Amino acid sequence: MFTLSLWDFNGQMSMATQSAVSTLSDPGLLRSQGLIGGKWVQAYDGKTIQVNNPATGEVITNVPCMGRKETTDAISSASEAFKTWSKLTANERSKCLRKWYDLLIAHKEVLGKLITLEQGKPLKEAIGEVTYGANFIDFYAEEAKRIYGDIIPATLTDRRLFVIKQPVGVVGAITPWNFLLAMITRKVGPALACGCTVVIKPSELTPLTALAAVELSIQAGIPPGAVNVVMGNASEIGDTLLESSQVRKITFTGSMAVGKKLMAGAAQTVKKVHNGCRIPRMESGADMFRGQDCYAYNHNLSVPPPATEMAHATTVAASMLLSGSTMSNNREPALSANSLFFSSSATSLFLSVSAPSNCTPVGLLKL
């Protein structure tokens, strides 16, 4: 198996990172605290975790390592805000969402830099994700005004049956680290549109984009408590969301293992679950976004020519991949593969790319 580390730990913040962080600090989008009840707060015990730039290993900032207590308060805050947010007219909620969309688009360059800083996605693709993610808010801003009911034919002449749709309550939104903004907006957008309130648990590896997006939601006029963000101890936060009777729905994108655990836990309090896990390992896949893409394939079963020729072709293609700072195009080839592991009997080919344990992994290519 061919293994290659892609990080340079020089202990210094690069000029590109300094410039990007400076750009972020100006509009107040580089947040490093959780959000509970409209207030930016630290972990109650003072614990923090580092957020690293995966291209260099340098520390961007520290964020609170939250757990059960903070999550409980976030749920209570969302439950209280639900009483007023759910009573607003669909048109009023739509206006807030539309303003949030406008702010996301207005800050797409800054948000794109933030995605690149903490996740490593190339800047052009990161900015593209901001537009893609903002479009969910735009869509649900309009759909908020079209939550229609139904008229059902009655079996008796003196009866009239109709159905109205109402918000379920507090929604727990658990998102992965590969699509930092889009996974937030596609979960939070429809929840807010129909009158629900939200507790977001972004990946503890990449929480900064979620915090920046939520800061813009506050500026858009979404009231305190309607959106909350906690990060840190994933198991404590997840268990608290599952155990709470105030949380009525869980929406999740991530690994199959965590998805199964959430579905099992949600059954104990009869929660609805929107489970977005698609493949056993989020880090498996092909070249797109270093393999960190739900649409990326896991295996390529070869047909003639033989697997040895396929291995050579794949090695050549992989050697063209680039590593280093994704803020610029000044990057060296990431791979100079000497050998690949493949099974001639199964005609499957595997290329492994590993990373230090304290960094976001580049991924596992299975070709």
Automatic annotation (TrEMBL):
One of its GO terms (biological process) is gamma-aminobutyric acid catabolic process. Coiled coil: none annotated. Residues 40-274 form the Aldehyde dehydrogenase domain. Keywords: Oxidoreductase. It comes from the Eukaryota. GO terms for molecular function: succinate-semialdehyde dehydrogenase (NAD+) activity. InterPro entries: Ald_DH/histidinol_DH (IPR016161), Ald_DH_N (IPR016162), Aldehyde_DH_dom (IPR015590), Aldehyde_DH_Superfamily (IPR050740). PANTHER family: SUCCINATE-SEMIALDEHYDE DEHYDROGENASE, MITOCHONDRIAL. Belongs to the aldehyde dehydrogenase family. This is Aldehyde dehydrogenase domain-containing protein. The lineage of its organism: Eukaryota, Viridiplantae, Streptophyta, Embryophyta, Tracheophyta.
